[in-house]
Amino acid sequence: MNEISSAVEGGVLTLSMHRPEKKNALNLQMYRQLTAALQQAQHDGEIRVVVLQGSAECFTSGNDLKDFLAAGELNAEHPVVQFLYAVSAFPKPVIAAVAGLAIGIGTTVLLHCDLVYATADCRFQMPFTLLGLCPEAASSLLLPQVAGYQRAAQYLLLAEPFSAQQAADFGLVNEIVANDELLAYAAGKAQRLAALPAEAVQRSKALLKAPQQQLVQQTINKELVDFGLLLQSDACRAQLQAFFNK
Asked: Organism's domain of life (predicted)?
């Protein structure tokens, strides 16, 4: 089965991560598929909204680290980098439906979504420092804006996990939804958004994003430089080896 499935209905493109044996860990092919889908949706006038989801049990456990490490330098051709550029600059509304695990990119990608709905059992975490690494996806810029500096430091420096209720309290999550209702609830919100005048919605999103869009791209690039340097460090290699040994 395709690990990224797509379906279009009523102007809504739904992208579903399906790799249950790996808790929807994202490999390079999945990143390529997500990027291609976003690029196509950007230029498809019939698509007005994108929904990004896993299953009703799991969003994503983050990067497939072995696959990620095998991809080489974090340059503009790297599938993860291409996805970050695509999702951070995507001009149409993106809705995330999040259940279970949302680790690493599973949390940071939400900072680029316009609406986020989550189940009460969600576990969010950005374990970058635990692996000897630094934030990515402009999370060093965007998370302090959403959560405040101290909470951002707690989650990015200490890499502490947090719950859906905590995420809702500081503004990362719009609403907490029951597991058996999550995907339908997000789909309903997407259909409601798709029914609105498309130009008005897209111009409104552009206005919301405009004040710092350039800064977001600059931050992504700076984080990638630091991330790439840290990947080569002895500390990072030791932490990654310990992770694989588990």
From this structure: Bacteria
